[in-house]
């Protein structure tokens, strides 16, 4: 694997039509919404979940692309794999006293699990595997415009058991937004990625896979609630150094997204204009349009 030598920041745009991009379980699974601006939200956790699912799909769960955080995964069992592979014995909630052995365990987790070396992980359970600060971070996605949630009534024609066979059909509800274009920012730290001995070992190949996942992950995440959810743009800022050549917030300001002047109610990505201000791009930073 090729060690990461450059810092990256990126702007990620995706949209949804007649669906729910990220339901809030504390609010009847309605689409998440910022209370003051009424703009829609999608959590970083939801986006990372889709990245994990895509990588698991294309790499079939094999090291070094195994996925640590999976549904119904028993994390202690994941950690125990590291101890067994290194012929070490685990003590409850404690890493080995020898610093080199403790590092070996955490390094093994990074080497084998894609999401550990990408997003980091706190692995200090009963079988302690240490903790890792990930080089890749993503913020909440926020819709460009305020969203309006529609409540749709649905019916259920089938019943669960014989005694309910003569009952009338039951009613239910689902919540959708007619259309929403969302923007998220991402950060990739080359210094935290490091190499095989320092950092998590997140590599150039891992970065390519991350970008591939962001472009394609919605294609394999279709459901009744997210049928029309699509990645639209992935604009990457590549710095020519490990520490970077400009502040991320200044780079993000170079990308503006706004509805076309004659559009009052956006209902598709084509109703927006995405502008990249290349004239004010800082020295030492390159723009790569992945999508």
UniProtKB/TrEMBL annotation:
Amino acid composition bias (Polar residues), ranges on this chain: 30-39
Region: Disordered; residue ranges are: 20-39
Q: By its UniProt entry, which InterPro entries does this protein fall under?
A: Cas7_Csh2/Csh2, CRISPR-assoc_prot_Cas7/Csd2
Q: Where do Low complexity bias regions lie?
A: 20-29
Name listed for the protein in its UniProt record: Type I-C CRISPR-associated protein Cas7/Csd2
Provide the species name: Rhizobium oryzicola
């Amino acid at each position: 694997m090729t060690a990461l030598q450059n810092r990256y920041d990126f702007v990620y745009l995706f949209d949804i039509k007649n669906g729910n991009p990220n339901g809030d379980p504390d609010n009847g699974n309605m689409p998440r919404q910022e209370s003051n601006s009424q703009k829609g939200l999608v959590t970083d956790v939801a986006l990372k979940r889709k990245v994990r699912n895509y990588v698991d799909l294309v790499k079939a769960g094999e090291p070094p692309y195994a996925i640590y955080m999976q549904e119904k995964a028993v994390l202690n069992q994941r950690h125990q794999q590291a101890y067994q592979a290194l012929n070490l014995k685990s003590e409850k909630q404690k890493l080995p006293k020898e610093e080199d052995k403790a590092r070996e365990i955490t390094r093994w987790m990074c080497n084998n699990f894609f999401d550990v070396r990408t997003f980091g992980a706190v692995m200090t359970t009963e079988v302690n595997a240490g903790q890792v600060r990930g080089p890749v971070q993503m913020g909440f996605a926020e819709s460009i415009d305020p969203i309006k949630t529609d409540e749709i009534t649905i019916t259920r024609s089938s019943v669960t058991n014989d005694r309910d066979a003569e009952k009338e059909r039951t009613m239910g509800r689902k919540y959708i937004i007619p259309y929403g274009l969302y923007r998220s920012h991402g950060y990739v730290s080359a210094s935290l990625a490091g190499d095989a001995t320092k950092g998590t070992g997140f590599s150039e190949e891992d970065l390519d896979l991350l970008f591939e996942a962001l472009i394609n992950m919605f294609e394999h995440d279709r459901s009744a609630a997210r049928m029309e959810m699509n990645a639209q743009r992935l604009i990457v800022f590549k710095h020519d150094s490990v520490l970077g050549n400009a502040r991320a917030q200044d780079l993000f300001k170079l990308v503006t997204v706004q509805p076309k002047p004659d559009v009052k109610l956006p209902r598709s990505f084509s109703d927006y204009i995405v502008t990249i201000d290349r004239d004010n791009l800082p020295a030492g930073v390159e723009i790569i349009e992945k999508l």
